[in-house]
Amino acid sequence: MTEARGKFITVEGVEGVGKSTNISLIAELIREAGHEVVLTREPGGTQLAERVRDILLDKAEHGMTPMAELLLMFASRAQHVEELIQPALEQGKWVVCDRFTDSSYAYQGGGRDMGDEPVSALEELTLGEFRPDLTLILDLDVATGLGRATATTEADRFESEAQEFFEKVRAAFHRRAASSDRYRVIDASGTLEEVQTEIRALMSEVLR
User: Fold this and answer.
1) What count of other Cβ atoms lies within 10 Å of the Cβ of residue 105?
2) pLDDT of residue 109
3) Beta-carbon neighbour count of residue 172 at 10 Å?
4) Handedness of CA 25, 176, 75, 161 (dihedral sign)
5) Biggest CA pair distance of the chain
6) Which residues contact 71 (CB under 8 A, 6 or more apart)?
7) Where does 144-193 show beta strands of DSSP type E?
8) Is 154:60 a contact under the CB 8 Å cutoff?
9) pLDDT at 133
10) In this structure, are residues 28 and 119 in contact, taking their beta carbons and an 8 Å threshold?
11) Would you give per-residue pLDDT tens digits along the chain (208 residues)?
12) What is the rounded distance in angstroms from the CA atom of residue 59 to the CA atom of residue 62?
């Protein structure tokens, strides 16, 4: 008997929304429900993609053009999906990914003012019909998020952008959330307990 295909869940949001902490909770809930889970991230997730990540986050690459940035994102993503994500799903594992294509719509399409068209074209070229089963967008005002993100670590190339850039990123996430019922927006401005109570309620529906 063929094992049921796993579910693919992505977690999105501007900097400092608490993705890492809440991804750990999501993984714990999936395991408690009896599923094997794979945690991964973008850019990254494979040896090649992690090397691309280093380039993308390096502040020394301040001259990178928006199109070069977008193409590197999708080069990394194509490898990530084929090498790690799809095989895991086919084995019946659930995959939880810190960022995916919605971040390209938000950061390059929105923040870099490229619009949706080039992102959509590359999505179709590299992924075909492959999409997440569920996308959680952790939503938080930009100033608060940036303050959290840079409080303990040095800002990377993206985190060094101006607040206006991230306002456009957040607006793009909101547009994505309104476009399909696969999105769930979680208010990340409350306490950790409040945020995780909402996530627990959502995941109980998904895991039912």
Assistant:
1) 23
2) 98
3) 24
4) negative
5) 53
6) 122
7) 183-187
8) no
9) 97
10) no
11) 346 999 999 999 998 899 999 999 999 999 999 999 999 999 999 999 999 999 999 999 999 999 999 999 999 999 999 999 999 999 999 999 999 999 999 999 999 999 999 999 999 999 999 999 999 999 999 988 888 877 777 889 998 899 999 999 999 999 999 999 999 999 999 999 999 999 999 999 999 8
12) 6
**Which of 125, 117, 160, 166 minimizes the C-alpha distance to 142?**
166
Helical (H) or strand (E) element with 134: strand 134-139
Tell me the two tokens of residue 115. 């619009």
Secondary structure class of 164 (helix, strand, coil): helix
Query: Which residue type occupies 23?
Result: I
Are the beta carbons of 132 and 9 closer than 8 angstroms? yes
3-state secondary structure of 13: coil
Strand partners, 187: 139
